[in-house]
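> Could you send the Oxidoreductase prediction when you get a chance?

Sure thing. Input:
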Amino acid sequence: MNVNAPHAAHESLDPRDRPARLTVGVVGAGRVGPALAAALRLAGHRPVAVSGVSDASVRRAATLLPDVPLVTPAEVLARAELVLLTVPDDALPGLVEGLAETGAVRPGQLIVHTSGRYGTRVLEPALRAGALPLALHPAMTFTGTSVDVQRLAGCSFGVTAPEELRLAAEALVIEMGGEPEWVAEEARPLYHAALALGANHLVTLVAQSMELLRTAGVEAPDRMLGPLLGAALDNALRSGDAALTGPVARGDAGTVAAHVAQLREHAPQAVAGYLAMARTTADRALAHGLLKPELAEDLLDVLADGGRPDSGRPETGRPDDDAPDGAGRDDR
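Output:
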């Protein structure tokens, strides 16, 4: 890629009409770096060096980047025109500073990090050394296997770059199969928090749900949850809060109290998470008119009491024929 003429790269990605290909290096052979380098190789770029320390990193590099030599980070920068810094967020500032201080960064070198938390400001030491800084964060979960390369097709990338490198950043993302989404420097931490809230916490919730189903005697919790969670995710992406269903959105305080009682008995470690999510769900359902105020009062009392309803208070709720469309017993 000729970064001085990125417009051509952005407009035409046909293999017969591509700009010059780049040599690619990877610093940090975790789950992300080798997959991105493999995707760039499919676009015609040439991985030439990778660094990694752990046995798992070495195996990933050997699988996704066969015949690419494993070298030190400094040697990666010496060999590559485009360097992917794919290390944990907390390690990135120190890595950039160290590489710049040792003279490993070359003028005109593309230095790309994949951290969601940071924009290009973290690359300031490399910029002072003459490098061209880009922040390209794939909004995707990675396994460290070849399936990751396929999943990049249509994957959004959170992109932050200087204006003069904007089209070059777009071209790189498109060549990896992704879609660029521009994120301002100051918005990067919020952007990353949003992704972590949705994706990382989802894994925890699904894993807990499967454990509870196994405890309840369900032999194939994954098969049971698959269609349900797939539909819930699709509905949420299409309709947002209007997709809320279940006992909290209906205001069934007695059912919620029963849930918490069972969790206290069989999975006490899940109680705090259930209560926190139930309170948030109730607040959102109430704000969007899905939860009636008169039903919300008892529900919020139960949640405030940690799921222990007043023993003298009758269970609240409504019969199914009083439930709004789509919120009856068949829609939990």
